[in-house]
Amino acid sequence: MADLLLREVVVEGRLVDVRASDGVVTSVGPRLTARPGETAIDGRRGALVPGLHDHHIHLLALAAAERSVTVSPAATPDPAAFAAALAAAHRSLPPEAWLRVVGYHESIAGPLDRWRLDDIVRDRPVRVQHRTGVEWVLNSRAVEVTGLDVADPTPATGTAMSGTEGTEGTGDWTGDIPAIGDPVTGVEHDERGRPTGRLRGLDRWLRDRLPREPPPDLAAVGQRLSRLGVTGVTDATPIDRLEDLAPLAEAAASGALPQRTVVTGGPSLAAAELPSPLARGPVKLVIADHALPRLDDLVGWVRTAHEQDRPVAVHCVTRTALALAVAALDAAGAFIGDRIEHGSVVPPELRRLVASLGLVVVTQPNFVAERGDRYLAEVDPDDQPHLYPCRSLLDAGIGVGGGTDAPFGDPDPWLAIRAAVERRTAGGAPLGLREAVSPERALALFLTPPDDPGGEPRRVRPGAPADLCLLDASLSQVLEEPSSERVVLTVHAGVPGQR
């Protein structure tokens, strides 16, 4: 591995050169002497910061989304636009190929079922995923192909893994805040006993009945993240089979996925040795509000993880889920590194309990910008000031890390940074302005160590991994209007990426 010399970059306010050797920063200082064979890059006095780490992402789902039709209230705001998007995709596909649609929300065209989808596309199998990841809707051709109208899959019964199994689905149920009392996991039927095409929590069942597809293009995902200045990720999908991690391990080993990759996995992999070069993160536990686990079960899962010297990352998107998580962690005994994923609603009374247990919160401020207008219309007004909090957590002494939850959210962390500062919806309405943080603190959400998302931000200094992000101006200038357009170069373990 050749040495890398970044000339005239600004590190923590100082104009310096930075040398990296064997994937590690070895020298930081003014006017370093060039070495034979060294790759030298002129930084043009741009800021050099550690590469960003997305503490909550779903890589395989992001790759799958790249070959899907993505709909959203912004892109397809009404039934006509939704129908046009599906019809256009239908015309572009070969006969009998599946049409995969992601990101659907009821505000586009109301609740979907097989018959409404038949009115748009009847002659090919279609599956539409709700933007929360909680549900698929199949048209009648897809119902026929999967055999859903012949024999129903056995419904799951309220486990922490409901709706998140396997790699076919997009992972977590986030972005929206589910209501208590949603239908349980399984297949919905109409009054005549016919399947409506709506499946909840049956990702693996569906995946096993789909035609074999090419492996996910993780190289494209890696390149996309690299252009955003991202050098590390924590995949927060609660995968429960080692073989499902093979695509990630292969892409990371080959360099197709240049980001340092930490994976969680579900409780069944708590004791598993993960394939190299994947790093083992916390055990992912999902508290699904539509099918809440028993407290004793949740305590057992936490203890199982802790017995393997692994912390847990507990998915919480409502007050109820957070209260249950806190109760379980209190009963099991909190472990260094235990964290709350999303912390979508953290009111003061629960904030104090989170702080007392020493928990970290990994949050997604990008949802304030991406979905804030919907939250203002649908979320209980008592919860709105506490949505995706940041400032109040920091003030309470709670460590906070940042994630995008891509593909549920946009994978660009700079959008999340900006949202954490501005706390404005896409329509410009304020949402939780008291939770706003400074631009520097917002950036720090993505600079904390992979194994300590609430810790001190990483620094560019000798001995640190040479995972770096070069910007096109001073840090203060870039943070006036945070944008990934300001990323000039991303360096992975001392190797410059492509722009």
Protein described:
- This protein is α/β, with parallel strands linked by helices.
- 28% of the residues lie in helices and 21% in strands.
- It is built from 16 helices and 23 strands.
- A six-stranded mixed beta sheet has the order 7-8-9-10-12-11.
- Helix 9 (295-307) crosses helix 10 and helix 12 (366-378) crosses helix 14.
- The two termini are 20 Å apart.
Instruction: Profile the largest sheet.
Output: 6 strands, mixed
In what order do the strands lie side by side in the largest sheet? Answer: 7-8-9-10-12-11
Rg computed from alpha carbons, rounded to a whole number of angstroms: 23 Å
CA-to-CA gap between the ends?
A: 20 Å
Name a few traits of the molecule:
six-stranded mixed beta sheet; 28% helix; 16 helices; alpha/beta; single chain
